[in-house]
Design a protein that fits this description.
Elements: H1 6-21, H2 28-39, H3 51-64, H4 73-86, H5 88-94, H6 107-117, E1 131-132, H7 133-144, H8 152-157, E2 170-171, H9 173-188, H10 191-205, H11 213-222, H12 233-267, H13 273-285, H14 290-300
Length: 301
């Protein structure tokens, strides 16, 4: 049981709003207001007319929200832009389904979106179990508003519904569907909380027709509890900083190994000086292809 009261939500919304507005103009409030303006008309965020502006608005917010951790933002956002462009048709089919009616959304299109957004970080080429959940859910929370971002703070602070793997950083599509369905059931049985969501949406966004149910739930677990029982955001941020430092050390070591390999190939005449520079640039510009590049160079030895 989520045990979120309407009063608790409204208090936490004020806390979140203060933090969100500190990042003006790159705020969830600003992005959601933009979405409402676009989609109250005949278009949508990812159609040909609006997709460039949507991506231009989405990028700075995701960077502020540290969506790219533990990698450099530019290395992740370029693949994300391509993935977002590829899901325009599926987005158009699912965008009008709220969390209250999530089970009616077309599963094939949800899965297509999940797979497209799940492959944008370098680590995703390694064949590990599942996808880095926040890689998918954080952009989708902005675009649709119905999923939670499910970052480490939220996963730690909210109940796991007795679902195996809920606290993990990597999720299968089926786990996300199960969690979203549980949330749908909860909302549909909590009229008081939903009424509060509607009131805040009307007050802040001027409509009850398109409510960001997922983001409202997310902020309930992202902002700290009054009683101090939730995991501190500062503690999580410190943990993630350590992870980022370790990842940077790992990448520096891998780059050093690459330079040694390139020098060996150059000395043996297997590659030219220009090829040495090209391979080095490829390694830096395309982190998702580093394993394949290193394997190809090893075959030249």
């Amino acid at each position: 049981m989520l045990l979120i009261s309407a009063k608790e939500f409204e208090r936490k919304y004020k806390d979140f709003e203060r933090l969100d507005f500190a990042n003006r103009p790159h705020t969830f409030h600003g992005f959601w207001s933009y979405k409402l303006r676009v989609e109250k008309q005949n278009g949508h965020l990812l159609d040909n007319k609006n997709i460039n502006e949507t991506l231009a608005r989405l990028g700075p917010i995701l960077k502020i929200w540290k969506w790219h951790r533990p990698y450099k933002f530019e290395h992740c956002f370029e693949p994300l832009k391509k993935s977002v462009r590829s899901i325009s048709d599926s987005y158009a089919k699912i965008r009008n389904f709220s969390l209250m009616e999530f089970d009616k959304a077309p599963v094939k299109d949800l899965e297509r979106i999940w797979n497209a957004l799940g492959s944008v970080k370098p680590e995703e080429s390694s064949g590990q179990y599942g996808e880095l959940v926040m890689t998918i859910t954080k952009p989708l929370m902005f675009l649709c508003g119905q999923t939670l971002a499910f970052d480490s703070v939220v996963r730690e602070n909210m109940p796991s519904f007795n679902l195996t793997g809920f606290k993990n950083t990597r999720w299968e599509f089926s786990l996300w569907i199960d969690v979203m369905t549980k949330l749908q059931t909860y909302l549909n049985s909590n009229a008081e909380l939903v009424s509060s969501f509607r009131r805040i949406s009307a007050e802040k966004y001027g409509t009850e027709a398109m409510i960001p149910y997922g983001q409202f739930l997310d902020l309930c677990y992202w902002t700290e509890s009054k009683d101090g029982n939730s995991k501190s955001r500062n503690a999580v941020i410190e943990e993630e900083k350590k992870t980022s430092i370790l990842e940077e050390i790992k990448q520096q070591k891998e780059f050093g190994n690459l330079i040694d390999l390139l020098n060996t190939l150059k000395k043996s005449g297997k590659i030219s000086a220009d090829e040495w520079r090209d391979y080095s640039k490829q390694w830096n510009d395309h982190p998702q292809d580093r394993d394949r590049l290193t394997e190809r160079l090893n075959h030249l030895k």
